[in-house]
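User: quick one, fold this
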Amino acid sequence: MKIISIVSLYFFCSAASLIQPKNVKVNTIATDHDGWQILFDGKTTKGWHTYGKTAVNERWKISDGALYIDNTVKEGGDIVTDEEFENYDLKLEWKISKNGNSGIIININEDTVKYKETYRSGPEIQVLDNDGHPDGKILKHRAGDLYDLIKSSSEPVKAVGEWNAVEIISDKGSLKIFMNGTNVVTTTMWDNNWKQLIAGSKFKDMPGFGTFKKGKIALQDHGNAVWYRNIKIKKL
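Assistant:
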């Protein structure tokens, strides 16, 4: 009986190897049981690089399952996903330092000849200490705002040093931003109203800004300490 079982197992494995497709790139990015793609594993910067570079700069570090900026390190820069995304539900958490400023930038085109910085192509969801940073006094520059484009409808942001949950849903032009479970921004990208918003903003003289229907996602290095964790995305 044992001999028969071993022989059967040998032929089963051989047959499986014959039908295994060749030259297929295996997706090494982890997914959870609900099909969410894990963009940050809590331990490494796998899947990310500094904008325009091949690896993550030394300013971004990892501690207690969070990516954070060590602003004592001189070399910095925004980090972006290796992969581009189109039509997605993005979830992550952030907390900001006192007087701090950062942002989550979406739909980035990493053509560094045309776009020297991430914000020259991708819209930003503001991450800020509203009470301590000067931008907190500027309309459309506060935490949860679609930076310089749309003011958030409410401000369910938590105090400095506390974690905030953000959800960004971009689906066929529809853009919704949720802060700690509250829908704070709803808009439609790429229509005439969107073009008017850009024309009335600081991005009006940046050709290509806000025009891309897919792109990379960035975490902004604005020179201040900030933390990000539990970063995941689901393609729609």
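User: anything notable?
Assistant: The longest strand covers residues 226-235.
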